[in-house]
Amino acid sequence: MLQATVLADVAVVLIAGAALLRLSKVSRQPAVIGEILAGIMLGPSLLGLLPGNLTTRIFPMDARPFLSAIAQIGLLLFMFTLGWELDAKRIGGSKQTVATVTFGSMTLPFALGFGAAVLCYHQHDVVDGRHVGFSTFAIYLGITMSITAFPVLARILTDSGLVTTRVGTLALASAAVGDVLAWCLLAVVVGLATASGPHGFLTTVGWATVYLSAMALIVRPLLKLAVLRMSGKAYNTYLAGLVAAGIFLSAYVTAGIGIHPIFGAFAFGVVMPRQPHRKLETHMLRPFQDASKLLLPVYFIVTGLSVNIKGLRAHDYAELALLVSVACVGKVVGGTLPARRAGLNWREATGVGFLMNTRGLTELIILNVGLSLHVLDTRLFTIMVLMALITTAMAGPLLPYLVPTPGSGRPATMSVPSPATLMPLPRTPLPTKPIPAAAHSTEEIVVSVI
Q: Is residue 405 within 8 Å of 419, Cβ to Cβ?
């Protein structure tokens, strides 16, 4: 009976996700907005308010571990594809401009988030009876403010026709580099939160170093050899199975080290060979992307079951206003000013800032890590989820007023101003090379235009 309940729960999640997905498209929002809302609506925030305790009856407590396991598989596959597409070392060309926007859009929100932690800490310093250290709490909050959701940003740019513009390419490249840095910082925070004192943290760092060295020096060459020998038609299925096994084993190893399993899946995606690109994209990347898209709605309902808006108090809404303000000011200002100094006009530079303010699924993953590590309590988790929704939903409606689209009657890319109008900063101007017609993946788009 329990197995049947889990299957029925998955069906309910998929139906609700499909319905809200359609609504998000009509309202010009990325798909993740509808999926997150579906998860929240099926949780205690909406369905739980109705008579009959429907949330608990539809999603009984003994079924939730199975739902979490299904969600974990979808999440690990997604993290692998994210690592595969975030091939940061291939981002060349205008490295200085990308680095400047990345630095500004991460350091300012991190600093403001650290400052906000000073005001919020005493309201959330105890989670499930465990004391949370201020340094761990503040660094974690700073990271959550610094996140830009690379996959969500790519979808927004594609849907709005801005992916080939100077604004789109700059924001996409900066988000790619920023996400790599954010995952590295989060790994440090996870190590701090799970380690038993300085000795335990140093032990975790040591094993993490061994793991990363093995991934680079042993696993990557073996994967290249496997791809070389198994990329023929007859072996495509076996290669996908081998890679999937590697994803889950890598996640198992990082969990044993003391850092979250998502880092293992992400690292496996980073070391995965990209050539032959077309074959790997067709027979491995796209099937994994499709599988993660099918399973991630279950992840959203697992998240939604922990979001309890009705449990928020009056001062919690004041914290929500504070954190939304910190998130927006940090990202918009931190992304706008460096883009302006790189030569974009104020409207387009502001467009870069608002694009960098999208958080979406990446933020949810990081928030769930904080919840599982008892760095966040349920109230602050709920506040942060709402913050992620609000900041992600801002970009779509504002972009048409900030960034001209190709064919709109205004230039889609910015003409390079004369040297006399620019500040004397050493930089490499962004090229205006068009996207190749054959480019399909996000990584190809980033590499081809930068």
A: no
- Is 10 inside any structural domain? no
pLDDT at residue 323, as a whole number: 95
Task: State pLDDT tens for residues 231-274.
Answer: 666 566 678 888 899 999 999 999 888 778 888 998 998 899 88
User: What residues contact 386, with CB distance under 8 A and at least 6 apart?
Assistant: 309, 320
- Hey, what amino acid is at 203? T
Q: Is residue 201 part of a domain?
A: yes
End-to-end, the C-alpha distance of the chain in Å comes to 54
| Dihedral sign (CA 307, 309, 315, 321) | positive
Residue 109 maps to a domain: yes
Dihedral angle sign, alpha carbons of residues 6, 294, 235, 80: negative
State the residue range of the domain holding 165.
83-298+313-405+435-449
| DSSP bridge pairs for 131 | 126
Please, are residues 9 and 362 in contact by the beta-carbon 8 Å criterion? Answer: no
Alpha carbons 11 and 7: distance in angstroms, whole number: 6
Phi then psi for residue 126, to 5 deg, are -125, 125
Q: Please list the alpha-helical segments (H only) found in 403-424.
A: none
Bridge partners (DSSP) listed for residue 130: 127
CATH of the domain at 151: 1.20.1530
Half-sphere exposure of 395 (CA within 13 A, CB side): 32
pTM of the predicted protein model: 0.78
Do 103 and 427 meet the contact criterion of CB atoms below 8 Å apart? no
Q: What three-state secondary structure class fits 126?
A: strand
The CA dihedral of 185, 36, 170, 167, to the nearest 10 degrees, is -150
3-state SS assignment for residue 130: strand
Lowest mean pLDDT among 114-118, 210-214, 270-274: 270-274
User: What is each CA distance from 220 to 208, 255, 267, 268, in whole angstroms?
Assistant: 16, 20, 10, 9
Strands 126-127 and 130-131: antiparallel
Strand ranges, E, within 42-160: 126-127, 130-131
CB 136, CB 193: distance < 8 Å: yes
Count up the domains in the chain and report the number. 1
Give me the helices (H) in 258-377, please: 261-271, 277-280, 286-304, 314-341, 346-355, 360-372
Could you tell me the CA-to-CA distances from 149 to 92, 98, 158, 392 in Å, in that order? 21, 16, 14, 9
In a domain, 63, yes or no: no
Q: What confidence score (pLDDT) does residue 252 get?
A: 94
